[in-house]
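Problem 3 from the worked examples.
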Amino acid sequence: MASHRLDRDEARQLAVRAQLLDAHRPTDLVAVVHRLTFLQLDPTAAVAPSADLVAWSRLGAAYRPSHLTRALEQDRALFEHRAMVRPMADLGLHLADMAAWPQESRRREWLRANDAFRRYVLDLLRDSGPLLSRDVEDRSTVPWPSTGWTNNRNVTQMLEFLAARGEIAIAGRIGRQRRWDLAERVYPAGTPVVPADEARRLRDERWLRAMGIARPSVVGDAGEPAEVAGAAGIWRVDPEALGRPFAGRTVLLSPFDRLVHDRKRTLELFDFDYKLEMYVPKANRRWGYFALPVLHHDRLVGKVDATADRKASVLRVDAIHRDVPFDAETTAAVHGELAALASWLGLSDVEIAG
């Protein structure tokens, strides 16, 4: 098949539109998650939790975090699995991989050595219903060995492992604490299991549709081949997305947003250098602890170092890092988004340093 030939503008617009970041805002949270395929969960809330920021950047002021909670815990239109929120309609695409987990021998051996502990957890949940991890007694025979924070955290590890295997599931949360239950009481009964190879192919197709353009190493043979001017090598594109008109807007993105998550792709398509610096010593940071990338139409133009000061009811902006010069229209648009973000967060004001 002959490759599509795209210039950089076309490639960027494909990526932006695929991620629902163009001018045509969606209106339904579940439809957004279905298009994006998942929302990543992360507890960092310097501005707001990432999943909420990603939803807000698509849906705007109409979105509330309670909408995500309702979709997960009441409507069961979404499910949480391994720090990702996914559409319940996609569950069948993941069940085969769950059943085959874990592939890694160290985890398999630990589960085998603690099979009595595993059965105790399943029986406890069956009899008691949803429980927090603190409600589960540590009955491990062999402790979980690690040089990191998971060392000897045997209850947490067992719950994580059983969820990864699809034996239990997250039924909801109390604050940040997860409530665990048997998977059969969370996931719809009779969900067809898509065979692993077919599921992988379908996930690749879904992921390419969500990204618009990606490398074959990411999406396999999904879509059709393409070449991008100035970016060596072959890409894969969603052919149904080609040739559509584009209208952009200005957006403040979560550092975990999938438009910027693949730093190499972001550099190749957008000429945008970015790194999440929350783990970088303060003295070595260039952009800030939780700097928000700034999308203006089809270009990533800067980063905003902001923090939500909820006690003072202020969105504090320590710096607006401009990767390119801002004209008056760009400056006004960025300030408008900061005001919109503060309003959505329930803050009274925006304070921009300098």
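Problem 4, a separate protein:
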Amino acid sequence: MSNNNLDPHNTTPTNLESFTRDEKYMLRCIQIAKNGLGTTAPNPMVGAVIVFNDLIIGEGFTSAFGGAHAEVNAINSVKDISLLKSATLYVTLEPCSHYGKTPPCADLIVKMGIPKIVIGLKDPHEKVAGNGIKKLEQAGCSVHVGILKNECEEHHKRFLTFYTKKRPYIILKWAETADGFIAPEATIRGEKKKPYWITNKRSRQLVHKWRSEESGILVGTNTVLADNPQLNIRDWTGKPPTRIIIDRTLKIPSEFHVFDGKQKTIICTEVEDTNQFIGDINYKVLNFENLLPHQLCSLLYEEQIQSIIIEGGCKTLEGFIESNLWDEARIFKGATTFKKGIKAPKIQGVIKEQVQISTDQLTIFKP
């Protein structure tokens, strides 16, 4: 892969000859669905394509949460709606069958008379779970399910993990030096609390892009105390993630960036004295004597946070690794060396991808 590609996940097959016609249109659904990444949650980022006589006459993806679903946007994009009665709708996920922020998509599909629907995946959400397919079939539609199933599962991994495992999709991320350190010893740092960079600017920009794609970002106390991070997306555009900070005894000073009020922040603590709480920050009291990663997963599920990127520190990362609570690990190896400091976590998994980003190497693991 070229090191000029800023996003190692933004890959589209170049050899389409081996794909069937239905698969090619489903690939297009997945491609356009990515436009909703980071904005649709808790709704899934669905893509939809409408085809008439082997020509795409409409397409759409899920709007930001509260807006129209992909099927609605695709139907609304068709200039001659009379063609819908002879068209095929392709969609990455089963059309919804219930009222939420918007009316059921299955009802609209039936109303518009679309005779054939090709679906990537059945929706695991309890309010859908096959009911959308059933409604379409009862209306006389021809429904085909499971086209590019694996690719659609990968695309919808956040949504599927959230509703099947009752926890967010968990991405571990860290940068380590060429000699295997995640942070330098305290004597190397200056007096001002700020991040000590291991990676280059291109890698750091990519991390900000990743942050814009996830619902939450999680760090431990020591990372905040050492780096005073902002945990925002200042090097990218988009919606900043909810900050989740582990601060068992409320050590973090109130003047630190995480209390700036610029994005939603949750502090996880064992302190129950509300007089120690700051402003509009959302505090959650946990039992630190029990398995913390499991408690955090339950909390984030309750908070409707479908995905998180965990950026440190070592203790926090290792807690999730030891609990086997992770779905992906994105590890940068920089060219610098520390010789002394905090050793990077150890992880065992399958290498799915390796990308060279200028002087840095990015390795992506799956369990």
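Solution to problem 4. Residues 43 and 65 are 7 Å apart (CA to CA). The chain has ten helices and 16 strands.
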